[in-house]
Amino acid sequence: MDALAANLAAVRERIAAAATAAGRAPDAVTLIAVTKYARDEWVRGLLDLGVRDLGENRPQQLTERAETFTAQPPVRWHQIGQLQRNKVQKLLPAAFLTHSVDSETLLARIERVAAEEGLVPAVLLQANVSGEDSKSGFTPDALRALWDAGLDRFPHVRVRGLMTMAPAAAPDAVEAVARPVFAGLRTLRDELGGAEALPMLSMGMSGDFEPAIAEGATHVRLGSVLYAGLAEG
């Protein structure tokens, strides 16, 4: 696990450097280690190295791994992939934060299940800032309409912020392609109530997390950059 430790240390250094360059505190950015393709021994290695925020794309794998991997302090499991309405009931007790609430229909389903189960889950609303047909999420106009209608219709859900994904881009095009999307999410957040009302911005993955931090990301979702070189070991 020496390679994993080295990768994690390098990523933390890059996060700190990006935050400092943006005039932000490094500890204002939460690293979520995405474990979708991670071997169990890599997950254990991350826990041994002090990582406590882990992200899964599939609800079933999240709930299974939440039962398997325990640690002190406890693991904070993040649902970062698309969530189907029929998976909500099983997911909610295990998820610390659901990043991918991409429609009012899903938000209403979470509200119903949370009320029935006596839960108040924390969620982020996924915004399709880039306008790509391949990406799910609220359009900016749909989010504005949701805000205008009022979130008091969902008293059992804590909307903590927004999430987005930028288009894939070659390394030399990330600034031009991804950064405007991240800036757009921050601008939308500011329009809807600012950091006081929506303190979390989940944006930035392995190929574009530094410009995301420059634009105000509070949570970055990193997978491949943590596991580079491990498959051969």
UniProtKB/TrEMBL annotation:
Described purpose of this protein according to its UniProt entry: Pyridoxal 5'-phosphate (PLP)-binding protein, which is involved in PLP homeostasis.
N6-(pyridoxal phosphate)lysine modified-residue sites: 36
Domain of life of the native organism: Bacteria
Cross-referenced NCBIfam families: YggS family pyridoxal phosphate-dependent enzyme
Domain Alanine racemase N-terminal per the UniProt entry, residue ranges: 7-228
Protein family according to the UniProt entry: Belongs to the pyridoxal phosphate-binding protein YggS/PROSC family.
Protein name per UniProt: Pyridoxal phosphate homeostasis protein
InterPro entries named among the record's database cross-references: Ala_racemase_N, PLP-binding_barrel, PyrdxlP_homeostasis
GO molecular function: pyridoxal phosphate binding
Cofactors named for this entry: pyridoxal 5'-phosphate
Keywords tagged on the record: Pyridoxal phosphate
Organism: Alienimonas californiensis
Entry-linked Pfam families: Ala_racemase_N
